[in-house]
Amino acid sequence: MILGETTHLKTTEPLTEIFSQLGRACSIPLIFALGERSYNIDVRELQESIDSSGGRKLNESTISRCLSDLVEIGLVEGTMRAHSAPVAEYCLTSTGQQIYRHLLQIRHLAERANNEETLLDSMSAC
Q1: Selecting from 3.30.70.60, 1.10.10.10, 3.40.50.720, 1.10.760.10, what CATH number does the domain 13-123 have?
Q2: What is the pLDDT of residue 100?
Q3: CA-to-CA distance for 28 and 100, rounded, in angstroms?
Q4: Beta partners for 78?
Q5: Which of 4, 52, 69, 77 reaches 20 to 30 Å from 93, CA-CA?
Q6: In this model, does residue 2 exceed pLDDT 60?
Q7: Residue 20 and residue 81: Cα distance in Å, rounded?
């Protein structure tokens, strides 16, 4: 069962909505945690992954709200796993995977910029 089918974006400008969501403190760590997995992952496992990566500590309710918003804009897909107590699991959609790959490139650039002063100088030229 798929959770929260993608609905309409909250703004009329899709790029603005995506950047608005990506600007939240929980979105990038969640996208990285989901992108680094080849399997669906539940909220508790996501929280452990983010905590162990040295990122900002996020509680389960914050993660759940953020995941719902990422589902709504089509970057994440949620499914219910039927067990004695149903568990929601999440993965990146194909669009989410594309965003993840771009974010990896941005992270690499940021890490290089942090280590190379001249790269920072050339980036601030505009």
Answers
A1: 1.10.10.10
A2: 97
A3: 9
A4: 3, 90
A5: 52
A6: no
A7: 30
Please spell the DSSP secondary structure of the chain, one letter per residue.
-EES-----SSS-HHHHHHHHHTSTTHHHHHHHHHT-SS-EEHHHHHHHHHHTT-----HHHHHHHHHHHHHTTSEEEEEE-SSS-EEEEEE-HHHHHHHHHHHHHHHHHHHHHH-HHHHHHHTT-
**Residues in the chain, overall count:** 126
CB 4 within 8 Å of CB 68: yes
pTM above 0.85, yes or no: no
